[in-house]
Amino acid sequence: MNKRLFVLLVILMSLSLIGIIFVQGYWIKKSVEDKEEQFSNSVSDVLDKVADKITRRERNDYFDRYVNIKDSVGDLKSSHFKNFFFIDQDISSDEIHYYSHGILEEEYNIASTFFDNGSGEDTTTIKNYTSRRLKATFKEDLGLDGHQSRFTPIEKVEKIGGLTSMEISAFEDMFGEFAKRVPIHNRVSKQEIELLLERELTNRNINTDYEYGIASKGLPTSVKSRKFSFRNPTPYKSLIFKDSEGNSNYSLLITFPKKKRFLIRSILGMAALSLLFTLVIIVAYSSAIYQLIRQKQISEIKSDFINNMTHEFKTPIATINLAVEAIKNPQVIDDKEKVMRYLQMIRDENKRMHAQVENVLRISKLEKNQLDISKDRVDVHDIIQDAIAHVELIVDDRGGYIETHLKAGRSEILANEMHFTNVIVNILDNAIKYSPNAPKIDIYTEVVKNNIVIEVKDQGAGMSKAVVKKVFEKFYREHTGDIHNVKGHGLGLAYVKRIIEDHQGEVYAESEKDKGSSFYIKLPLI
User: Fold this and answer.
1) Please, which domain of life does this record's source organism belong to (predicted)?
2) How far apart are the C-alpha atoms of 186 and 382, rounded to whole Å?
């Protein structure tokens, strides 16, 4: 993948993810705000309804007491009847409209204790009003002489009973003026407030703790719940016991100590789903980015691998071609010693290419789990000695050494002899290749609990911590400026790791730049 295209793709995906997270965060914030607004509107409606019900209950109490007392008194002290009327004639239809409204005023002797004013003086006057309404329409009929006439009733409606809404309002206002002098704790009880609040809040699905109180001109009163504080800066409130002009000295206040928790809980389900889906998107995004980066790295590693393999096959092929051309030379073909030397070169180079191909095939089979590994009882010390024999000539040729310190008291394991030998050979080959000077290698064994630990220690170039973490990855090779200065294709240690893991063992490395490396193999004993 083109580097610029890759960077652009990552940026676009990152911006998309940030946009999704921002939208989700904004949605959750907006939902909380909307819920809070709905909550405030619902609470305001609840307070208005509760205040209205308490006010109406008080006035109904006064009306009921008034009716009961009036019925028990019985005799009128005095009565007055006032009547208002008007007459209107429609000339076009010869109709006359008559309307009258009479009010009967009845006065009773009722004690002043009705309003509980506590003065002890009988100065209260209770009056009953009865309204009588009459509406009639007459048709004027002229006599034969054109002068005599009579009125024929067409419609007549008469109503006797209650007062108009205006008169009732005046009546209620009168009771309200007397009620203002009654202490607030005698006008409403805590039980009544709690019952009405509980009922109204439940009807609106507001199921959270609340505290309430009644304030008089902004000052606290004794009518309040146990934990209510008048210092709360943002209580919900509504006027209670309002007069005909909508004014009142009293306010019903309510607070919700756990309001935020209630609001968040109300959208918790949708918010949790939203966060879950966002998390899934983040995980998918992270995985996609990781895979893209990984594929890019693998692509680069494979390119390096192809370059290395090309280089490593190119040299043997060139050597073989030169040897063949040399043998074809008439002056050389008769020289048996030279012919044998060139044939040996051809055999060695061919063997070298074959070993590389086999290594690649082994790794491929391991990846597909097609490599058949049968295990037998083997001695680790014997395998180490066998592996040393494979590389001893190379080490001697470079003036180095391989020393063994095989101190493990038990050394038998269950393993595949051929593959485990290849493991040790690969580690030794790695130590030889990365020793700039004469290779100096020490091999140690020891028993740790029920395991044998093999350490292959060299004094070569060493590795950085970043390289140590990746050294067992397939195709990975440390870049050293010239990619071909150390021949290899990044498969040897990957093969080592897969074989050791198949033997239920562990392999790891410790290294320091310019101070050499140590490879450890840990396998269970039998």
Assistant:
1) Bacteria
2) 105
